Amino acid sequence: MKKYTNDSLLELADDLKGGKIAAFPTDTVYGVGCIYGDRKALHALKNIKCRPEEKPIPMMASSLEQAADLVELNDMAKCLAEAFLPGAMTLIVPVSAKMDREFTNGKETVALRVPNAPQLLEVIEACGKPLMVSSANISGQPAALTCQEAVEMLPGLDGVLDGPCRVGIASTIVDCTKDHPVILREGPISQAQIDALF
Q: How far apart are CA 96 and CA 128, in angstroms?
């Protein structure tokens, strides 16, 4: 298993572009991911996590602009994004006609996140397209919070970037497809903080 450091972020991006599966620290918990658009890598990621097919992998972008062709953002999603992204919030948003439905398990929505993690944002930007990222764990188990935990839980990884996760709690998930924001999982960003915007 290859070990990356902050001095080898571009190497990590190149390996992800080549179809590798890697784990890395985010602003919340450790993530594991592959590049969007590589179906073989997507299936390898699901196999490593033992991810059920009915649970799609979320998308992580370096910015909303990077994912603009793949998703549709209504005013609610834009408002939340302006207030909380980059940060510990995941937005459930409709996908566009350009999104490969293989990457949403056939669903018409995707979970989109822009993490407040500069090194990771640099990697995703260097990839030139978003990553498909889930928490670094076997599906249903607690998320890894350290490099060592990620490696122990997911021995099938191609590589891992060492580093800290600042928050240690999974992101707040907000469904933006309703008439008002619906929290599906409360994390570091609270219901009160969201309500204050609307």
A: 18
